[in-house]
Structures are given as structure tokens and as C-alpha cells.
Amino acid sequence: MTIPFYIVDVFAEEKYKGNQLAVFLNAESLTDAQMLQIARETNFAESTFITAIKDEIATIRIFTPQHEMQFAGHPIIGTSWLLMNKIIDNCGQDITVLVPVGSISVRQEEDLVWLQAAQPEFLATFSATDFLSFTNLSSADLDTEFPIQEVTTGSAFVLVPVRNIQALKNLVLNQDKMDKWLRENCQTDHRAFYFFCVEDNKISSRMLCVENNRLIEDAATGSASSCLQAFLLKYHQSEINTINYQGDFINRPSQIHFKGSLADNQYDIKIGGKTKFVAKGKWEV
């Protein structure tokens, strides 16, 4: 059996930047084990599997090389761009993507595709002292204007504010100690750090986690960005319209657009980005 597949770069200003994504069509007959095997074979941060398309509603599943994701931003943005521009004939500007956490509204405006994130949940806060034991950060490197907190809009991340881009650039973590801390402190099965700084009104970030016993860094993380946008709306400003820069330190520069507001305890969280087409082909299952 063969199924069509595409490769795109998401949150990318040009091809070979941003975050890579493999998208597989006609995946409804694949087993969970097969999807995971294929995701491991591509070895991208995530791969998506489209299991149904009806009108302008698509059901997709998202896999890393280690496990299935309940929600992830760059796979939804990239898959939606393909659906609207390469797969669904005469598609409008709006589609709905069904993922395990529920229904995600997606809209294309010129060359940007935007998704509407779910309402955030703010989980535990943590002591800055913890981070001195498994990073090279000093207490002066951490930005005390913000808490260190686990936040989720479908996938949870521990958000860690640092004072400047230099601290972000020079960041080093001890994998074993970091992994132990994440396992002991995170409230969900998805365990990852999102280090960020707000310097001169510019947001820069790095996502690091442990997968398959390896420390990995993601080029562009839409789910973490939706958590960060909610976090900044809560603790920094009630309206936001800016860009989050990620991937610069691993030679995959990415731009994740933020557009959101907070009013009456309701969060309007939108993240957007450009998608660049790379390749298409047939996959032998």
C-alpha cells in the first residue's frame, strides 16, 4: 500500500528554515503503531496523518518520534496550509481541524495561516533555585518580573523567563538532571521547557525536552507559543501583536506570529505563520 505525503517548512520565511513537517494523506487505514513507525522514520519534530476530510473539516493525528500529541501548533498550521492550498479544491479561507483535544479553527490571511488556541490552564509555579542545579544560569540570568510556571493550551510547557538574549543563547542544560526534574514536577505526560526573554520588545525563545533519551531542541513550537502568549497576556500586557523568534541557535530561524487579547478572564489567543512547500511523493507502507 502506498499513501501520498508532503514535506513543508512551517513558521518559515523561506524554504529550509522554520520547522520541518511531514504530512500523510489517506491515513485512516494505518494503525497507531504504523503511524509511530513512520514518524520515527521521518525523524522530524512531528508528522501528521490525515484520516478524514469532509468539506472543509479535516481530522488529523500528530506524532513525534516518541508518542502521539494531543495538540501541536506547527503541525496544525502546516497541515492546514496544505489542505487549503494543495489538497482541498476551491477551499475557502477557513477550515476546521479536529485533533484529540477538540476542534481547532484555522484561517488563512494572505500568506499567513492562523489558528485559534484553546483557553489556557495555568498550573504550578516553581522556585528559580531549582534551575540553578541543572542549567548554567545564575540567579541574575532569570527574569524575576515573571514567575516560572507550567501552562497548557492542550500541551503543557514549563515557561522559564530569562533576562536577555545572551543568557538564552548561552543556555546549557544537564540532560539527566533536567529529565529527572521534569518527571518529578510536571503535571502532564508532555514534559518540556520553554525558555524565553522579552528584550527591547522582541520575544525570543528556545524549546528543549528529552525524547528517546536525547536532549532535543525544537525549531518552532506553536503549542508552546500559544502557552507563552497566554502567559504574557496574563502577566505582561492584555493585548499582544508581535512575533516570537525561535530556532535561531540551531540554524532553523523561525517566526511565530502572536495576535491576542485578554478581557473578562477570556483569552483570545491566535498564533500564525508562513508555510513553505518542499516536496511531495508516495510512501510505501
UniProtKB/TrEMBL annotation:
Signal peptide: none annotated. One of its GO terms (molecular function) is isomerase activity. InterPro entries: Phenazine_PhzF-like. The active site is at E46. Pfam families: PhzC-PhzF. One of its GO terms (cellular component) is cytoplasm. SUPFAM superfamilies: Diaminopimelate epimerase-like. Belongs to the PhzF family. NCBIfam families: PhzF_family. PANTHER family: ANTISENSE-ENHANCING SEQUENCE 1 (PTHR13774:SF32), PHENAZINE BIOSYNTHESIS PROTEIN (PTHR13774). This is PhzF family phenazine biosynthesis protein. It comes from Flavobacterium pygoscelis. The lineage of its organism: Bacteria, Pseudomonadati, Bacteroidota, Flavobacteriia, Flavobacteriales.
